[in-house]
Amino acid sequence: MDRISPGTSLLKIGIFGGRFDPIHAGHLAIIERAITHHHLDVVHIIPSASPPHKPVIAAYTDREAMINLALRDRGIPPTQVIIDDREHCRQLNEGTPSWTIDTVISIQNEHPGADLWLIIGSDTALQLQTWHRASELLQMVSLLVMARRPVQTADVALHLHTKFPEFNRPLIVDSTFDLPVSSTTLRGSTAGPHLSESVADYIQSRGLYRQPIVKVLGITGRVGSGKTTASDYLSSQFTIELIDLDKVGHTLLTQPDVQADIRLAFGDQVFNDGVIDRKRLGQLVFSSPDQLHRLNAIMHPRIREVAVRVISAAQNPVVIVGALLDEIGILPLCTVVWVIDSDDAPIETAIGAKFNIRHSQQSREAYQRQGKVIVNTFDERFIETLRSNYLALG
User: Residue 105 maps to which CATH number?
Assistant: First the structure.
């Protein structure tokens, strides 16, 4: 199946990427229709490892497990569907983002001469111009556009040919196919017609997408902004469960499975006497965006899983502190988010050389958009502001 023999028809491969967070009946109906109605030979389901535009909630392993369960429940034969983990593997091994064009090139190299069809929704089709190397991508694939809501074929076609006048590949817009549901509306569901029984059971057993029973306060901000000062004060004055994401990460670095993944990704250079040297690891990853991305792919899902477990078992209000609430996908777990903020000068004075790490983090403005901004005045007024804001939470 890797090569097309002379005189045979082209192998038609569908490429269906997404977060699948969780997979639902709409996704499955797309797969079935692509195969039965549009005559694709096989569909590659490609769960996003870490999509650049939208964070995932469930870990990759959980999303992959739910896809397997959903396909089994639906009775879709494995000969027609491949759960393709190449984006996840690329992120772990190379530290690169999940760009669709890289996935397409990889599949094209494996199946020379095959007819590749990118399966997307109509909303996505109208935003293709924002994709990485979109023009190049559209020279390599045909498009099968499934409508989330009724849309005229001409609307999508006109948009694509306006934005990409060089696009001359086949285009099919299935405008009679209305998707009734999205993953966002299903998170937290444990039953219903849009989730298969096995997927619903899996979500419940793993505690995925569960809305916390207790109040969860997220504290985030740039390095050195005063997040630890805030969390230390709250833990000393109030009865809370504290999750320090940095400390969670440090603890995880001592676990054998994490050390094995770190060794595979970075080699022995970051080890000292069989133990991960955090200073060496930090010097390596903070000097290279690709290396940092690779480390994040190993650590972020595990850190989030620890946070979910603590929240699920908590009897008291939970405070989660860390600069990476957004990147790790923890923001949706928070009832309230505080962004500890300050100008650059007092931060640099407080933390010295560590101030340079800010280049690897989000901008000040990006943090400010994540929640309620609390200004660190680096004196007693900051503590009083923390106290009054916490008491106001009720």
Answer: 3.40.50.620
